[in-house]
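Reopening this one. Same input as before:
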Amino acid sequence: MTPHARQWLTECKWRLVGILGKLLIDLIFCGSRIEVEGYAKVRHLRSSRRLILAFWHSRILLISHLYKRQNALILVSRSKDGEIIARILQRQGHEPLRGSSSRGGLRALSGMIRKMKQSGRPAVVIPDGPRGPRHRVQPGIIMLAKKTGFPIVPVTYSARHRKVFNSWDRFVLPAPLTRCKVVFGDPLSVPPDIAKGEEARYSGLLQAELCRITTRADAAFGHHTL
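Same output, byte for byte:
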């Protein structure tokens, strides 16, 4: 087989992964009853599209499903798992930018800042990805908010019936047709003139808010946040 043929087959495989992944997520949530809490305080930001959506790695599925076709800029790692996520996000109508804390992160972050400023498009960052530590905010999202002036909007969800995987992030997979609850937290704006030493304080504020709303969403169904 020629290198060109191998490349073509590989691309076909990844396109199929994206198509099937999107269809599977659509099937999981197509009959779910979804309750949303806290949306009023972020409605104006969603309308302006000038925001950075932040949620934990374990809570990707429902949020990516709810906000399909938003043409958001989403930071995704360069790992094999990241390739799967990126292909699904593309099918959902977003633009993945590949990079992480260990591979190509600064370049991807710089590209995201430039595109956000030029187009006013929303961004998505998973602040404890791609490999954790779980529920610990890494500094990239604070830099992004500082450089663009876009506020960070924390969001999470839980489900009445779900499977929690024994992975590093304790990934949550809702059962089909189950009741779900989405919770928005208080937006966080990062001033452009803060000193570098202050960035850790804003990371702490975001981390505390994400943990608070995740605990609240889980508690609605009697779950303990793992």
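So the earlier flakiness isn't reproducible anymore. For the record, Residues 105 and 218 are 31 Å apart (CA to CA).
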